[in-house]
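Project standup — Tuesday

K.O.: blocked on the structure for the chain from last sprint. Re-posting the sequence here as requested.
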Amino acid sequence: MPTGRSSDGLAEVKVIAGQALDVGAAIATHTPIVYLDWTLQPGAEVWVDLPQDHTGLVYVFGGAALVGEGRRKVADGQLAVLAPGDRLLLRSDQGARLLVLGGVPHGEPIAHYGPFVMNTQAEIQEAIQDYQSGRMGRIVRS
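H.V.: unblocked you, prediction finished:
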């Protein structure tokens, strides 16, 4: 997994998709997305560049972080929806683990039921029927 570190060594990122700290992901995605796994040591402060057309999220799953120019506190188990912009400030006084996620909004209607996500309820019903009849395929171990 490509990994980057801030110049002071207090922030580390695993780049799953997208780019951060001059490190790019090892894979290309079919649609432009950002998926970054950050570890912030106490005192870490780092700026993250996000594409202007992306909607971004920060999910903290350990510790707490101050997010954005307003330095809003996001604690363990919380999700922050980011305001539009192309730069994101991440800071932690106590240390944190977090994900930065982003993507271009698709602008289509969303219908969901259980694990199925489609555009209409009719498509949901079709997906359920496909699943129940075995037409969704099988996972074969090699």
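K.O.: great, moving the ticket to review. Residues 121-133 form the longest helix (13 residues). Residues 72 and 103 are 22 Å apart (CA to CA).
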